[in-house]
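Title: Prediction job returns without error message
Component: structure pipeline
Severity: low
Priority: P3
Assignee: unassigned

Description:
Job completed but the reporter wants confirmation the result is attached to the right record. Sequence as submitted:
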Amino acid sequence: MNWDDVRIFLAVARNGQILGAARALGLNHATVARRLSALEQALGSKLFVRKTNGSELSGEGERFLVHAERMESAMLAASEATGGDSLLEGTVRVGAPDGFGVAFLAPRLGQLTERHRGLRIELVPVPRAFSLSRREADIAVTLERPREGRLVARKLTDYRLGLYAARSYLDQHGAPSDLAALADHRLVGYVEDLLYAASLDYTAEFLKGWRSSLAISSAMGQTEAVRAGAGIGILHAFMAQGDDRLVQVLPEHNLSRSYWTVVHEDLRSIRRVALVAEFLSEIVARDRAMFG
């Protein structure tokens, strides 16, 4: 069995389509399709059900995926053992919530690529969960500690959320005297049915029956809306503090949540992955006062 064919199989399984896999691998569509067919012929099994909108794993494909990922893990371990990773070259993909990823990580990751010129970092700051077992990311920053799977989690930091409004909004509407008075104000919040973690559902901790006049599904979007005077919102303190346009409302009321770094067990010994995970801990420790 050809490992390159297995690698192509994994890319198609993870992208859900041959075209997406071809782009990810830097190959043309015809080559990926041909190599996939060769693997299916070698195995005597149909690994995918081809559809108009992509390729879906068949039953045989689902079963083969388990073995293919074990092969991938073995290849990564072999690369590490033979020094293939010793120069710290290659790509490490970091998945992070949009607020932490854009506001905190993005301005700081250049420090790491400056230290290690052969290292390429991919930051994917999207508001959803990542499947580390499917290698959608090498490192995930999560809002909750995973409870199952072959994952290694490390707490990065606690962070604080509070109520904020733009000075322009408060000049026009005044500040609430207590939490109950929030009901008389325009509120900025999240889109409830798009929440991907229970820890993100926190409006009721400030006001039961919180009703957002403007709901936005990203922390960055909520911050920009509040900054523009759209209403009072629950913002990450590390994103809001230091901005003269924003004022914390009812500062005695705060929430605390946590960020975790999570790495698949098979990847934690890969030097470039371990180095990036350690760098995340380093920069958070250095700027921990931002999160308090």
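Comment from assignee: result matches the submitted record. The beta strands are 48-51, 54-57, 90-95, 119-124, 139-142, 151-166, 187-189, 214-215, 232-236, 246-264.
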